[in-house]
């Protein structure tokens, strides 16, 4: 459970860096994502999940 909470905390830190360091750029990227269709967003999510799983397999 500690590892899971540490991983969640790290995700929150990484996710928070973009709006903290470049709020205008982050807003621009976010607006582009909102313009994507559901299928495109699902594909991005799938690629993210597969990349994360691959990294877990390689480094654990």
Keywords summarizing the entry:
60 residues; mainly alpha; 0% strand; flat
Task: Outline the structure in words.
This protein is mainly α. The protein is 92% helix and 0% strand. The protein contains three helices and no strands. It has helices spanning 2-21, 23-35, 38-59. Helix 1 (2-21) crosses helix 2. It starts with a helix and ends with a helix.
Q: Tell me about the largest β-sheet.
A: none
Q: How large a portion of the residues is in β-strands, by DSSP E? A: under 5%
Q: How helical, in percent, are the residues?
A: over 70%
Shape: flat
**How many helices does DSSP assign?**
3
Mean pLDDT figure: 93
Rg value: 14 Å
Low-confidence region ranges: none
Q: How many E-type strands?
A: 0
Structural class by SSE content: mainly alpha
| Span of the ends, CA to CA | 16 Å
Topology:
Blueprint: H1 2-21, H2 23-35, H3 38-59
What's the short version?
This protein has 60 residues and is mostly helical. 92% of the residues lie in helices and 0% in strands. Helix 1 crosses helix 2.
């Amino acid at each position: 459970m500690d590892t899971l909470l540490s991983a969640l905390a790290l995700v929150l830190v990484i996710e928070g860096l973009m709006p903290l360091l470049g709020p205008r750029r982050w807003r621009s990227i976010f607006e582009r994502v909102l313009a994507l269709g559901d299928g495109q967003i699902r594909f991005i999510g799938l690629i993210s999940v597969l990349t994360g799983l691959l990294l877990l397999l390689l480094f654990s």
